[in-house]
Amino acid sequence: MEDLVAPYALDAAMAERLEGGAGWARRWTTAWKTAGADVVCPVQDVAGFPALASVPVRGFSWGTRQRHRPGLRPMLATGRMHGFESLAERRVLLALDFTGDVEEVLSQPFTLRFFPRDGGGEDHTPDFLVLLPGTALLIDVRPADLIKAKDVVKFAAAGRAADAAGWRYLVVTGWRRHVWAGLDALSARRRPMADRLGLERELLDVIGERPRRFGELVDATSLPAVARAHAVHLLWHRRLAMDLAQPLSDAAWIYPVGRR
């Protein structure tokens, strides 16, 4: 996931504004919602919290005058719908579905209570907690031109909490060049497809010989017009590989998986 998004580095100066010293991970807390009750868990213990028993700490509401665009999006990786609060968050869900190693995604998973050095407690709700094999990824989503000074402090706090839990932390401010357009194009063929003509096998056999440009690859099959859709399907499911930093076109280089 980190390879797909625009680089964003946490501000070290802002991190210095946070409470430190012994016991900070006990004083900082995470507030979760479950079906039965609200639960508060210290940051020092959050890695062991049964996150799958939780529900979003904020509901997803719709109104005619609201400026953001919430909604629900299905993910093939989890087989269920996931809430988002903006179109930027919706794009993150699509990208997570593409990465292939996601076990679960929790929207607005908890509210972090943290303490700056020079003031009282502040709250921050990260946008997603992504459960991965053996670890997790905590994500905040904010377009670069909308990030304010208070957000930078909250990101620094979320990053410290994630580090204490042994998780990765990512702030998504945008996408690397061509990445979003490529993911959007590939996602059109993400759902299961019938392959009665055996074109996917043809595509895999052809690409197994050597890397080829997309147009050359599909033209080498028995039915190029139909093979195009199957090639995109194989790319989405990572059975073929391409460089998402390049536009998806007939000139794009396609590679066997695991070989570049």
Automatic annotation (TrEMBL):
Protein name (record): TnsA-like heteromeric transposase endonuclease subunit
Superkingdom of this protein's organism: Bacteria
Record flagged with keyword Hydrolase: yes
InterPro entries reported for this sequence: TnsA-like
Keywords, in A-Z order: Endonuclease, Hydrolase, Nuclease
GO molecular function, one term: endonuclease activity
